[in-house]
Specification:
Elements lengths: L1 E7 L5 H16 L3 E7 L10 H8 L15 H6 L2 E4 L2 H10 L7 E2 L14 H21 L1
Parallel strand pairs: 1-2, 1-3, 3-4
Length: 141
Amino acid sequence: MRKILFICSGNTCRSPMAEGIFNVRAAARGIDAFSSSCGLSVASPMPPSRFAIDAAALYGADISAHISQPISENLINSADDIYCMTSHHAAIVKHFFPECSSRLRPIPTGDIADPFGGDFEQYKDTAEQISCAIDRILEEL
């Protein structure tokens, strides 16, 4: 099974939506892959934002049970492919975990802006960007 890791800042918006949408779509397509997610700035475990839960649900993903987790050597080492939500996140990951450089992949649709603090429309837009990126990632697997 191919293991995918999505990384964002707080692991309460973008990367949990990506994790949930990826897992639903991979399963529906019969692709032997599974994703998890983490954040670069997770101070304490937190649930996803309400808008992230609602936006992911539009794509069939239930992320309501997700709890944020910080990036760790174990998560990095267990991933076959690592997708960061922005090139800035990727630069940070590469700095602290240089051994994973060959497994870092750019988001195929370009950087995905953080909707944190925004309204539901912003979260829906972010989920749509993530959905498009997930489709392209799955096509490449």
